[in-house]
């Protein structure tokens, strides 16, 4: 209203809210108020009202930090993972949107097919079970329902599958975790931009992810990674198995993912595009 240029960044899909009212209000507000709109994916942009003010600038990766020549030997040594053992990495910890429960349920099938596999989950891990009145309150309110479901699923795993699963908590060395891994897995249950996929691509690591908006845009199925139906435990295990059994194919997918990441997700290129959009908005009448 004051005539000040406004840049609106859309970094998540718009929620429908009750009967779609909140989403409709947000779409109108963005269209009415924004001088320019930056969406981090075409999936997010397509949910807005069509306008030439809406631009897609992907999230980006610093290739100086995500250096594919890094070694993962120290990570494997830290967790006693043999140098030749296949390693699958999940970034995101225990979280419903990330699909941790799906991965745990897929483990028995994966371990049966690839007995020496290890599956490492980095990010917020399972907290200790709450005791006393706080624990009772959480259970009554369902506040820890997902954590309890993951905990029970882990407890129900066969011994070999449980031994293959490693929760490592929050880490600051994601590039080295990726350097130690053959495949990134991202079994998300909701459509959103999956930053771990572009980080893996920057390291030349192929991804297996849910076929939802976000991952569907970041992965070219069969060319830079594999997409599987969300919530499909068998398909998830099969895709991981296929890549781990065929190292040449996995390497080819990783190389293609890296080349695509250089084109689409480079920090210098996309930061410059963001600054250019600000210059454009400031140079235009509000």
Describe this structure in words.
It is a single chain. Helices cover 45% and strands 13% of the residues. The model has no long low-confidence stretch (mean pLDDT 92). It has a six-stranded parallel β-sheet, sandwiched between helices. It has a three-stranded parallel β-sheet with strand order 1-2-3. The radius of gyration is 21 Å and the shape is globular. It is α/β, with parallel strands linked by helices and 286 residues long. It contains 13 helices and nine strands.
| Strand runs, count | 9
Secondary-structure element series: EHEHEHEHEHHHEHEHEHEHHH
Largest sheet: 6 strands, parallel
Neighbour order of strands in the largest sheet: 6-5-4-7-8-9
- Quick check: average pLDDT? 92
Tell the overall outline. globular
Q: Could you tell me the radius of gyration in angstroms?
A: 21 Å
Parts with pLDDT < 50 across at least 5 consecutive residues: none
Class from helix and strand fractions: alpha/beta
Helicity, as a percent range = 40-55%
The percentage of residues in β strands lies in 5-15%
From the N-terminal CA to the C-terminal CA, the straight-line distance is: 10 Å
Number of helix segments?
13
